[in-house]
Amino acid sequence: MTHLEIVNKLLIRLRERTVGTVLETTYSSLLSYLVNDAKELVESTWNWSALRNTLSATTTEDIFAYELNGTQNSLTVLDVLNDTDNFFMEYRTAHEFNKLFLATTPEKGSPRFYSFNGVSSDGDTTVDVYPIPNGAYDLRFNIVQRNQELVGDSDKLTIPNRPVEMLAYAMAIEERGEDGGVSSSSAFNKAQQVLSDAVALDAAKHPEETEWYSV
User: How would you classify the pairing of strands 75-82 and 132-133?
Assistant: First the structure.
Protein backbone atom coordinates (compact mmCIF):
# COMPACT_ATOMS: atom_id res chain seq x y z
CA MET A 1 0.00 0.00 0.00
CA THR A 2 1.32 3.44 -0.90
CA HIS A 3 1.83 6.41 1.36
CA LEU A 4 -1.00 8.31 -0.37
CA GLU A 5 -3.41 5.37 -0.13
CA ILE A 6 -2.86 5.08 3.63
CA VAL A 7 -3.36 8.82 4.18
CA ASN A 8 -6.58 8.74 2.13
CA LYS A 9 -7.90 5.75 4.09
CA LEU A 10 -7.30 7.73 7.26
CA LEU A 11 -9.07 10.76 5.83
CA ILE A 12 -12.10 8.61 5.00
CA ARG A 13 -12.14 7.17 8.52
CA LEU A 14 -11.97 10.70 9.91
CA ARG A 15 -14.80 11.88 7.62
CA GLU A 16 -12.56 14.20 5.64
CA ARG A 17 -12.23 14.58 1.88
CA THR A 18 -9.47 12.61 0.20
CA VAL A 19 -6.47 14.29 -1.43
CA GLY A 20 -4.52 13.89 -4.65
CA THR A 21 -1.14 14.26 -2.93
CA VAL A 22 -0.04 13.69 0.65
CA LEU A 23 0.97 17.31 1.22
CA GLU A 24 -2.15 18.81 -0.37
CA THR A 25 -3.59 20.11 2.90
CA THR A 26 -2.29 20.88 6.37
CA TYR A 27 -4.33 18.00 7.77
CA SER A 28 -3.17 15.43 5.23
CA SER A 29 0.41 16.53 5.99
CA LEU A 30 -0.23 15.93 9.69
CA LEU A 31 -1.61 12.47 8.94
CA SER A 32 1.54 11.71 6.98
CA TYR A 33 3.60 12.42 10.11
CA LEU A 34 1.31 10.19 12.17
CA VAL A 35 1.59 7.39 9.59
CA ASN A 36 5.38 7.52 9.85
CA ASP A 37 5.24 7.56 13.65
CA ALA A 38 2.96 4.51 13.55
CA LYS A 39 5.18 2.79 10.98
CA GLU A 40 8.23 3.21 13.20
CA LEU A 41 6.42 1.75 16.20
CA VAL A 42 5.07 -1.22 14.25
CA GLU A 43 8.42 -1.94 12.60
CA SER A 44 10.08 -2.04 16.03
CA THR A 45 7.53 -4.46 17.48
CA TRP A 46 8.68 -7.59 15.65
CA ASN A 47 11.30 -8.82 13.17
CA TRP A 48 8.86 -8.75 10.25
CA SER A 49 9.41 -11.18 7.38
CA ALA A 50 8.99 -8.35 4.89
CA LEU A 51 11.95 -6.48 6.39
CA ARG A 52 14.40 -9.40 6.35
CA ASN A 53 17.30 -8.99 3.99
CA THR A 54 20.83 -10.22 3.35
CA LEU A 55 23.68 -7.77 2.85
CA SER A 56 27.00 -8.85 1.41
CA ALA A 57 30.50 -7.57 2.00
CA THR A 58 33.72 -8.78 0.42
CA THR A 59 36.78 -8.14 2.53
CA THR A 60 40.03 -6.61 1.35
CA GLU A 61 43.41 -7.64 2.70
CA ASP A 62 44.41 -5.69 5.84
CA ILE A 63 41.04 -3.84 6.01
CA PHE A 64 38.91 -4.70 9.05
CA ALA A 65 36.18 -1.97 8.95
CA TYR A 66 33.22 -2.21 6.55
CA GLU A 67 30.08 -0.17 5.86
CA LEU A 68 26.70 -1.89 5.58
CA ASN A 69 25.35 0.25 2.79
CA GLY A 70 21.72 1.32 3.01
CA THR A 71 21.14 0.30 6.63
CA GLN A 72 20.97 3.88 7.95
CA ASN A 73 21.73 2.61 11.46
CA SER A 74 18.30 0.98 11.66
CA LEU A 75 18.86 -2.76 11.60
CA THR A 76 18.76 -5.89 13.72
CA VAL A 77 21.27 -8.64 12.97
CA LEU A 78 19.92 -12.20 12.82
CA ASP A 79 23.21 -13.90 12.02
CA VAL A 80 26.47 -13.34 10.14
CA LEU A 81 28.10 -15.92 7.88
CA ASN A 82 31.62 -16.19 6.55
CA ASP A 83 30.44 -17.60 3.24
CA THR A 84 33.92 -18.30 1.92
CA ASP A 85 34.93 -20.63 4.75
CA ASN A 86 31.35 -21.73 5.58
CA PHE A 87 30.89 -20.87 9.25
CA PHE A 88 28.80 -18.48 11.30
CA MET A 89 30.69 -15.54 12.74
CA GLU A 90 30.32 -14.63 16.41
CA TYR A 91 29.54 -11.24 17.91
CA ARG A 92 32.09 -9.68 20.26
CA THR A 93 31.70 -6.53 22.36
CA ALA A 94 33.59 -3.33 21.65
CA HIS A 95 35.66 -3.97 24.78
CA GLU A 96 36.66 -7.41 23.56
CA PHE A 97 37.63 -5.97 20.18
CA ASN A 98 39.74 -3.32 21.89
CA LYS A 99 41.60 -6.09 23.71
CA LEU A 100 42.13 -8.02 20.47
CA PHE A 101 43.43 -5.00 18.57
CA LEU A 102 45.26 -3.06 21.28
CA ALA A 103 46.41 -5.48 23.95
CA THR A 104 47.98 -8.02 21.59
CA THR A 105 49.41 -8.17 18.10
CA PRO A 106 46.29 -8.44 15.90
CA GLU A 107 45.85 -11.78 14.18
CA LYS A 108 45.34 -12.02 10.42
CA GLY A 109 43.26 -14.63 8.66
CA SER A 110 39.67 -15.60 7.95
CA PRO A 111 37.25 -13.36 9.93
CA ARG A 112 35.54 -15.20 12.80
CA PHE A 113 34.16 -12.31 14.89
CA TYR A 114 32.31 -9.05 14.26
CA SER A 115 31.49 -5.96 16.28
CA PHE A 116 29.66 -2.75 15.42
CA ASN A 117 31.62 0.48 15.47
CA GLY A 118 29.54 3.61 14.87
CA VAL A 119 28.12 4.87 11.59
CA SER A 120 29.58 6.16 8.34
CA SER A 121 29.44 9.78 7.16
CA ASP A 122 26.19 9.06 5.32
CA GLY A 123 24.57 7.36 8.33
CA ASP A 124 25.07 3.66 7.55
CA THR A 125 26.09 1.13 10.20
CA THR A 126 29.77 0.17 10.19
CA VAL A 127 31.14 -3.16 11.38
CA ASP A 128 34.63 -4.36 12.32
CA VAL A 129 35.75 -7.93 11.74
CA TYR A 130 38.50 -10.04 13.32
CA PRO A 131 40.97 -11.52 12.56
CA ILE A 132 42.05 -8.82 10.14
CA PRO A 133 41.36 -10.30 6.69
CA ASN A 134 44.38 -11.60 4.84
CA GLY A 135 42.49 -11.68 1.56
CA ALA A 136 39.04 -11.65 0.02
CA TYR A 137 36.26 -13.29 2.06
CA ASP A 138 32.56 -13.10 1.27
CA LEU A 139 30.55 -12.17 4.37
CA ARG A 140 26.76 -12.38 4.59
CA PHE A 141 24.80 -10.30 7.10
CA ASN A 142 21.26 -11.61 7.57
CA ILE A 143 19.38 -8.67 9.02
CA VAL A 144 16.07 -7.00 9.66
CA GLN A 145 16.37 -3.73 7.75
CA ARG A 146 13.79 -1.12 8.75
CA ASN A 147 12.67 1.26 6.05
CA GLN A 148 13.14 4.99 5.85
CA GLU A 149 10.24 7.40 6.28
CA LEU A 150 7.46 7.46 3.72
CA VAL A 151 7.87 10.74 1.86
CA GLY A 152 6.57 10.56 -1.70
CA ASP A 153 2.99 9.71 -2.63
CA SER A 154 4.05 6.41 -4.21
CA ASP A 155 6.40 5.29 -1.41
CA LYS A 156 5.24 1.82 -0.35
CA LEU A 157 4.75 0.33 3.07
CA THR A 158 6.27 -3.15 3.16
CA ILE A 159 5.07 -4.30 6.58
CA PRO A 160 1.38 -5.16 7.16
CA ASN A 161 -0.58 -1.98 6.51
CA ARG A 162 -3.55 -2.46 8.83
CA PRO A 163 -1.65 -2.13 12.15
CA VAL A 164 -0.03 1.06 10.84
CA GLU A 165 -3.37 2.42 9.64
CA MET A 166 -5.17 1.65 12.91
CA LEU A 167 -2.39 3.04 15.09
CA ALA A 168 -2.19 6.24 13.02
CA TYR A 169 -5.98 6.53 13.28
CA ALA A 170 -5.75 6.25 17.08
CA MET A 171 -3.08 8.96 17.10
CA ALA A 172 -5.29 11.19 14.94
CA ILE A 173 -8.23 10.73 17.32
CA GLU A 174 -5.98 11.55 20.25
CA GLU A 175 -4.98 14.76 18.49
CA ARG A 176 -8.62 15.63 17.82
CA GLY A 177 -10.04 14.59 21.16
CA GLU A 178 -12.46 12.00 19.75
CA ASP A 179 -14.03 10.99 16.44
CA GLY A 180 -17.76 10.40 16.19
CA GLY A 181 -17.87 9.15 19.75
CA VAL A 182 -14.78 6.94 19.39
CA SER A 183 -12.28 7.70 22.14
CA SER A 184 -8.54 7.52 21.64
CA SER A 185 -8.21 4.81 24.30
CA SER A 186 -10.73 2.63 22.46
CA ALA A 187 -8.94 3.22 19.16
CA PHE A 188 -5.54 2.39 20.69
CA ASN A 189 -6.93 -0.83 22.19
CA LYS A 190 -8.24 -1.89 18.79
CA ALA A 191 -4.94 -0.95 17.13
CA GLN A 192 -3.05 -3.05 19.70
CA GLN A 193 -5.28 -6.05 18.97
CA VAL A 194 -4.78 -5.66 15.23
CA LEU A 195 -1.02 -5.41 15.77
CA SER A 196 -0.96 -8.49 18.01
CA ASP A 197 -2.86 -10.49 15.39
CA ALA A 198 -0.48 -9.38 12.64
CA VAL A 199 2.58 -10.31 14.73
CA ALA A 200 1.10 -13.73 15.53
CA LEU A 201 0.42 -14.39 11.84
CA ASP A 202 3.93 -13.37 10.79
CA ALA A 203 5.58 -15.16 13.72
CA ALA A 204 4.09 -18.43 12.47
CA LYS A 205 6.65 -18.24 9.64
CA HIS A 206 9.47 -18.25 12.20
CA PRO A 207 8.25 -20.38 15.14
CA GLU A 208 11.82 -20.98 16.31
CA GLU A 209 12.06 -17.29 17.25
CA THR A 210 9.13 -17.47 19.66
CA GLU A 211 10.13 -20.65 21.49
CA TRP A 212 11.85 -20.45 24.87
CA TYR A 213 13.93 -23.21 26.37
CA SER A 214 15.06 -23.61 29.97
CA VAL A 215 18.78 -24.05 30.52
Answer: unpaired
pLDDT digits (tens, 9 = 90+) for 96-140: 999 999 877 899 999 999 999 999 999 999 999 999 999 999 999
**Domain regions of the chain by residue span:** 3-47+159-203, 49-145
pLDDT per residue as tens digits for the range 134-178: 999 999 999 999 999 999 999 999 999 999 999 999 999 998 876
Name the strand (E) or helix (H) holding 172.
helix 161-176
Cβ neighbourhood burial of 16 (10 Å; 0-12, 13-18, 19+): middle
What residue type is 196 in one-letter code?
A: S
CB 144 within 8 A of CB 50: no
pLDDT of residue 179: 61
Distance (Å, whole) CA 8 – CA 16: 9
Q: Of 52, 77, 32, which Cα lies nearest the Cα of 147? A: 52
Alpha-carbon distances, residue 111 vs 34, 78, 122, 136, 153 (angstroms): 43, 18, 25, 10, 43
What is the structure's pLDDT at 73?
A: 86
